[in-house]
Amino acid sequence: MSLLNKIKSVTNSITGGSAKVALEITSLPSRTQPFSVRVSAMVANQNLQIKRVYVRLKGEESIIARHVDRRYGYSDVNQSEILYEQDFDIAGEQTLLAGHSYTWEGQVDASDMETRATYLGRNARHEWSVLAGLDAPGNDPDSDWVDIQMD
Predict the structure, then answer these.
(1) Total number of domains constituting the chain
(2) How far apart are CA 48 and CA 19, in angstroms?
(3) Greater confidence, 137 or 13?
(4) C-beta separation of 39 from 90 below 8 A
């Protein structure tokens, strides 16, 4: 391996740039039954050894509280907390070849957990999001977070 290829390999490992990952929700997201997802990846210029393909589901609660101070007026205080986060394995260990595209389909099933529905109020909200990732050495290549509504 040339010095330039070694530098590219290390850079991809640090930045997660060894593959471009996308996530598609292919059925209606639900808290009471599994929903389907499709993960796709385009591998960069070097083979990529992965341990798994996963989808991460996250539920986050946020509040905005108005703080009133007689001298300085008021300000909004924002607080948020992740109440639920879980990975769902879509595929196992494999080697992805440089320059190739891959697609995996799987299920996300939050039905056995105590979860809350999506709620978007004036001062409080509970929101759901998902992302897809490839468990690889260094920084995992992953998709952007995708916001979803769950009843």
Answers:
(1) 1
(2) 8
(3) 137
(4) yes
What DSSP designation does 32 have?
Answer: S
Confidence of residue 4 (pLDDT cuts 50, 70, 90): very low
Secondary structure of residue 26 in the 3-state scheme: coil
Residue-wise DSSP of 67-103: EEETTTEEEEEEEEEEEEEEEEEEE-SEEEPTT-EEE
The span from the CA of 43 to the CA of 149, in Å, is: 30
8-60: pLDDT as tens digits: 444 444 444 689 999 999 999 988 899 999 999 999 989 999 999 999 999 99
For 86-98, b where at least 16 C-beta lie within 10 A, e where not — what string? eebebeeeeebee
Non-local (6+) Cβ contacts of 11 within 8 A are 17
Any idea which residue has 């394995």 for tokens?
89
Tell me which residue range forms the domain holding 134.
Answer: 3-148
Say which CATH number the domain at 74 has: 2.60.40
Rounded distance between C-alpha atoms, residue 131 and residue 151, angstroms = 19
Taking the model in full, what pTM does it have? 0.80
> How much of the chain, in percent, has pLDDT values that exceed 90?
58
